[in-house]
Write a structure and sequence with these properties.
Elements (H helix, E strand, L loop, with lengths): L1 H12 L5 H13 L3 E7 L5 E4 L10 E2 L4 H8 L3 E3 L6 E9 L2 E10 L6 H19 L5 H5 L7 H9 L4 E3 L3 E8 L7 E7 L3 E9 L3 H20 L4 H16 L5 E9 L4 E7 L3 E6 L2 E4 L19 E4 L5 E5 L1 H4 L13 H8 L8 H13 L8 E8 L7
Helix pairs in contact: 1-2, 1-4, 6-7, 7-8, 10-11
């Protein structure tokens, strides 16, 4: 444990861009590691990319079908013994449920009791990387397979994370096309008592759509941080958008406020994102009262509906770029194929469900590149455990 304390101290004192070097030095000195490789998941969640300065020969590896990918997907250490003497350990680099990447290292002997310490060290690294990203672009650059469009750059900077987890729930989300997204977005915020989720779709294309969404997301956050309920958040954001665009552009949004102690959910449906409920293995579309998108008219009033979640429920938020996409034969994804994709992903954790649904969407439309943004958010609801 003294080694772990010393390692944590070294990481905290390292310069933001020197975390990989410091980590390698610590692992070699304290744990006799012979090779250390840090990889981060790319924006599309398809590959794990090495963080420079990476050892010579370190290559990107796919999330699906690789040893580091197994640790990333399962969120558990994965250990290989390639020659019977050395050990290859792959450890998830994750902070509060947000999966950043994988730390891989070669040890001269079985990991044994050190594996627990090393797994905790990978978690400490994740915490330090999140803090370090305020001061360096090293990790943002390392996650890119290709250059982001300017619109996508704006959208990704708006996001809270791609997954998170607490005792009461687990969340996962993904946007496509990851490197050229422009109008769709998601946001969430958790307090001691509530979880709030926002799924948005700004009209238009390119930079104009991303600027519209940016204004809308920040208007919603400004209202939320003032402590007003979600129907008033929608009204204040509506006013901000209308004041700027005068009704010429609007933002579709689905706002959800969940009381963590009871599962009571208040929802404002102001546009095209759709809400699905998987309960007792039956998938249904949640029937909501459609209200006007934000920014269409001045001083629109919004009303919240109330629903109640039960432990074991799974909610899926999907944009129109998911449920409305047509196959070559004309059938929309939301008619039958979406239900099949959700069913096939029923055993996956919430963080993996969006990518699985979007892979199904790619097969449905019959071509790799989408015509519109596609967004999926998955919430698994566990409920509040009674105090012992």
């Amino acid at each position: 444990m003294n080694r772990l304390v010393a390692a944590g101290r070294a990481l905290r004192s390292a310069a933001p861009h020197h975390l990989p070097d410091t980590l390698s030095q610590v692992l070699r000195a304290q744990y006799a590691a012979e090779a250390v490789e840090l990889r981060l998941a790319d924006y599309g969640l398809k590959v794990l990319l090495p963080v420079p300065p990476a050892p010579s020969g370190t290559e990107p590896v796919p999330v699906q079908g690789s040893a580091p990918g197994r640790a990333f997907g399962s969120q558990q250490p994965y250990v290989e013994e390639p020659d019977g003497a050395r050990t290859r350990a792959h450890l998830p680099v994750t902070v509060r449920g947000d999966r950043l990447g994988v730390l891989s290292l070669t040890l001269p002997a079985p990991a044994g009791e050190s594996l627990t310490e090393l797994t905790e060290l990978a978690e400490l690294l994740a915490h330090e990387m999140v803090v370090a990203e305020r001061d360096t672009d090293l990790y943002a650059r390392a996650r890119r397979r290709e250059r982001l469009t300017l619109a996508a750059e704006i959208q990704w900077q708006l996001l809270p994370a791609r997954s998170c987890a607490r005792e009461e729930y687990a969340l996962g989300a993904q946007l496509e096309p990851a490197y050229a997204i422009f109008g769709d977005n998601f946001d969430w915020e958790a307090s001691a008592d509530h979880l709030m989720i926002y799924v948005t779709n700004g009209m238009g294309e390119g930079i104009e759509a991303s600027l519209l969404t940016s204004l809308g997301i920040n208007a919603l956050r400004n209202a939320r941080r003032a402590g007003v309920p979600i129907e008033d958040q929608a009204a204040l954001a509506d006013q901000a958008l209308h004041a700027h665009y005068r009704g010429e552009a609007h933002l579709s949004v689905l706002l959800v406020d969940i009381e963590l102690s009871t599962g009571r959910m208040r929802v404002v449906d102001a546009g095209s994102p759709r809400l699905l409920l998987l309960r007792d293995r039956v998938l249904s579309v949640v029937d909501l009262d459609a209200q006007l998108p934000l920014g269409m008219f001045e001083e629109t009033d919004y009303v919240a509906q109330e629903l109640t979640l039960l432990p074991g429920d799974r909610l899926l938020f999907v944009s129109d770029g998911v449920h409305g996409v047509a196959a070559p034969g004309g059938e929309s994804y939301g008619e039958n194929a979406l239900a099949r994709a959700v069913g096939n992903a029923s055993l996956l954790p919430a963080a993996d469900v969006p990518a699985a649904v979007l892979r199904g969407l790619t097969g449905h439309r019959g071509r790799p590149e989408p015509d519109d943004d596609a967004l999926v958010v998955c919430l698994d609801w566990f409920g509040k455990r009674p105090a012992s």
